[in-house]
Design goal:
With 364 residues, the chain is of the alpha/beta class. The protein is built from 13 helices and 8 strands.
Length: 364
């Protein structure tokens, strides 16, 4: 219901377009890239950004090597010596991404700051678009790119991609209506003056930083012309691990940012409750629906039908989980992905309650 409602509302609002800033008038900016043991990706990341449609002499880079133990520090040292626009912060003991961001932000001298992850690549006009949109309106505080999943080589990655397309539809609708509820952490831009240090144990820095800016009365937008390219996991366990960490971070952020639950303080209260919070109760509603249908099945053919559909769904999940032939089937695999991602809500709560989610990140 909510996705249709927010989509309809977005069509009732006059969309504020923006013009690209002229190439020669583009501002200097700083790109912050935290990393841990990414020696194989560092030079590729620099090449990717140097190939975009933006004056290379106006881009400063701050890499933060968070306790790397591979060849990353050696590669970064060489790059820093060869390019005056590259600064490297070496953290001896691994502290996590929030600490890396705080350290980097203390060294930023430009008004515009872009946060980027090292794994993904970006489209040629990605930076010029997010910067132009950010500077087009004083009420805009965050602009992020759009994540695009590539190379769907199996049913699992394809179904994860379908889920992400559905998620992006909601986010774009929210952005067009007023403001999204979070950003794509792989690429987003803010004003340096809007940033305040985050707790170093923060799990979801790319949620808390934008939401703190939202609380200042500014909006969060998604650029329709900035793309970040990544590959969806074919291994459902890896995708589930990533999802569990994200959901554990949601519980942490919600407990800290209690203003999110106030319709007076939260300018996107309805979007937050509908998009973010209610998703956390879906698996419990699934269980409740199954139990209630079991007791009601004898009272109506409609209840009996609903029970049959639910039993069939869980049967397909079990078959897809245990037999490759069903895992390869698109429909049964979709049921498995849907089930596993929703069960991640429960696992995420367990990890948050037991404080077992680490602030340091691992490759997935």
């Amino acid at each position: 219901m909510y996705p249709v409602l927010i989509f309809g509302l977005s069509k009732c609002v006059a969309r504020a377009d923006y013009s690209l800033i002229g190439y020669d008038n583009l501002p200097e900016l700083t790109i912050i890239i935290p990393l841990f043991n990414e020696s194989s990706l560092i030079e590729k990341k620099i090449e990717d950004f140097r190939s975009i449609n933006y004056p290379s002499d106006k881009i400063k880079y701050i890499f933060v090597s968070d306790g790397s133990t591979d060849a990353s520090n050696s590669i970064l040292s060489t790059l820093e010596l060869s390019d005056s626009n590259i600064t490297v912060i070496y953290v001896e003991q691994r502290m996590g991404k929030p600490n890396a961001i705080n350290l980097a932000m203390n060294m930023v001298t430009t008004d515009v700051v872009v946060f980027s992850d090292i794994r993904q690549t970006v489209s040629k006009d990605s930076i010029i678009n997010i910067v132009s949109q950010l500077l087009s309106d004083d009420k805009i505080g965050v602009v992020c790119g759009e994540l695009v999943h590539l190379n769907h080589e199996g049913s699992t990655s394809e179904n994860v991609g379908i889920y992400w397309k559905y998620e992006k539809w909601i986010r774009h609708s929210e952005s067009d209506f007023m403001s999204t509820v979070g950003t794509t952490g792989a690429l987003y831009a803010i004003h340096k003056s809007d940033f305040s240090n985050i707790n170093i144990d923060t799990i979801l820095d790319d949620f808390e930083i934008p939401m703190k800016i939202l609380l200042m009365g500014k909006r969060l937008k998604i650029s329709k012309n900035s793309y970040i390219y990544d590959v969806a996991h074919e291994d459902i366990e890896k995708e589930k691990t990533r999802k569990i960490r994200t959901l554990s971070g949601n519980y942490q952020s919600f407990s800290r940012m209690k203003w999110l639950f106030s319709p007076v303080k939260n300018p996107v209260f309805i979007q937050f409750i509908s998009h973010k919070f209610l998703r956390l109760i879906v698996p419990y509603l699934m269980f409740l629906a199954l139990v209630s249908n079991f007791f009601l099945a004898g009272q109506s053919w409609l209840f009996a039908l609903f029970l049959g559909v639910q039993i069939s769904f869980y049967l397909l999940v079990a078959l897809a989980k245990n037999f490759q032939v069903f895992k390869n089937n698109k429909f049964s695999n979709f049921c498995l992905v849907f089930f596993e991602l929703n069960m991640s809500v429960i696992y995420g709560l367990y990890k948050y309650v037991n404080k077992s989610s680490s602030v340091t990140w691992n490759k997935t």
